[in-house]
Amino acid sequence: VTAARLGDRSLFPALEPRAYLNHAGVSPPSEPVRAAVAAAVEEFARRGGAAVEGAIRRKARLRQKLAGLLGAGPEDLAFTQSTSSGIIDVALCFPWEPGDRVLLFEGEFPANVTPWQRAAALFGLKTVFLSLEPFERSDAEGLSRLEEELRRGARLVAVSAVQFQTGLAMPLRQMAALCARHGAQLFVDAVQALGAVPLDAGALGIDYLAAGAHKWLMGLFGAGVLYVRPGRAPALRPHVAGWLSHEQATRFLVDGPGHLRYDRPIRSRADLVESGAMAEVALAALEAAVDLIAALSVAAIHAHLNRYLDELEPELVARGLPSLRAGEPERRSGSLSVRPPAGVELARLRQALAERGVACGTPDGLLRFSPHWPNHPAEVPEVVRAVEEALRAVR
Ligand SMILES: Cc1ncc(COP(=O)(O)O)c(C=O)c1O
């Protein structure tokens, strides 16, 4: 297998767009990911149920690898199906009291709002929306506004590590410290960060974190990870538990008669949310994807993406597309969003770009460029030319 190299897309021979800049949406699978999927399917094809043993070993390896990526212990992680399923697990299992306040942000991706609204309806909580604008101006302003609200009392703050619209990397360390000072816990939707922005959940003091595999980790749909800070899991109420959530859950299938019981305790670890059969093929894809990310290092990927965006941003601004990218390196992610000119229909602009070989995203009225490690800054002039032509075509 060819090794992964920053700026080299030879592991993506099937990828059609000449500049694929929508990793914040969906990433294409690399050759190693495709090979891992094929091998996992082959294993089930050859061995049927006997392939489960290999799948169990794979999950143990993957848990270690994700723990390395996240600065966590493997016992603090659980596999999920998606970012959403991890968020829903915490929203349903959190030890709420009626009247608890949950702080949310206006402008967040809805995946990090809906489950908290549902929990509010179920458990009698109060949701409070804060604006992201103070954070867009500066960390200090955002944090001071957050603290003002925390002083009124809150059980939980839910935020994205990186905002899907602006690409703003939130000041998680300071947010976690403020939450701790005011008796609240911090939930982080990390799907716009994990794989592209260094994120050490343990060191940052985050309480819960969820992410899916198909964006910056470059895995496939159907797998995700949930982190629960050490010490938090025993307080969770196991509202999403299933047959595999018990201690020694599979004994009755392997150890002879007398082990079929319904009173085994539910694990008081993060993996209590692993309730039943899983998308083993998506987990196989995720293992290969994480191997590539880890080999390159997230810090090196982050620096590479920002070298790319440093080239692209001024060219777009010079062509009348104002940038929403933060000025400070530590507040930047792998995404650059610009505002399209007034009167331009965004769907047509995106289509015109796609026809010129440039794939990008259009979150809530913005044009978002999100390269990943295979993109090379040398493709920027071509992207800029495509933008110029596309703008002419749709005006
Ligand atoms: C911040 C954020 N959270 C969640 C999601 C999607 O969640 P899921 O993987 O559950 O569909 C997205 C997708 O764009 C996102 O940007």
- Oligomeric assembly: single chain
Question: What is bound: which ligands?
Answer: pyridoxal-5'-phosphate
What series of H and E elements makes up the topology? EHHEHEHEHHEHEHEEHHHEHEEH
What structural class is derived from the secondary structure elements? alpha/beta
Percent of residues in beta strands: 5-15%
- In DSSP terms (H or I, runs of 4 or more residues), the helix count works out at 13
Average per-residue pLDDT, rounded, comes to 97
Shape designation = globular
Helix fraction by DSSP (H/I, runs of at least 4): 25-40%
Instruction: Give the tally of β-strands.
Output: 11
The first-to-last residue Cα distance is: 46 Å
- Output the strand order for the largest sheet: 2-8-7-6-5-3-4
Low-confidence stretches: none
Largest sheet: 7 strands, mixed
Task: Provide a descriptive summary of the structure in words.
The chain has 395 residues and is of the alpha/beta class. Helices cover 39% and strands 12% of the residues. It is built from 13 helices and eleven strands. The chain has helices at residues 31-47, 52-70, 83-93, 114-123, 133-137, 139-151, 172-181, 201-204, 251-254, 280-296, 298-318, 346-355, 380-394; strands at residues 19-20, 77-80, 101-106, 126-131, 156-160, 185-189, 208-212, 224-228, 336-338, 358-359, 367-369. The chain has a seven-stranded mixed beta sheet with strand order 2-8-7-6-5-3-4, sandwiched between helices. Strands 1-10 form a two-stranded parallel ribbon. The protein has a two-stranded antiparallel sheet with strand order 9-11. Helix 11 (298-318) packs across helix 13 (380-394). The longest helix has 21 residues, at 298-318. The chain is globular, with a radius of gyration of 22 Å. 46% of the residues are buried. The mean pLDDT is 97. Pyridoxal-5'-phosphate is lined by residues 82-84, 109, 111-112, 160, 164, 189, 191-192, 212.
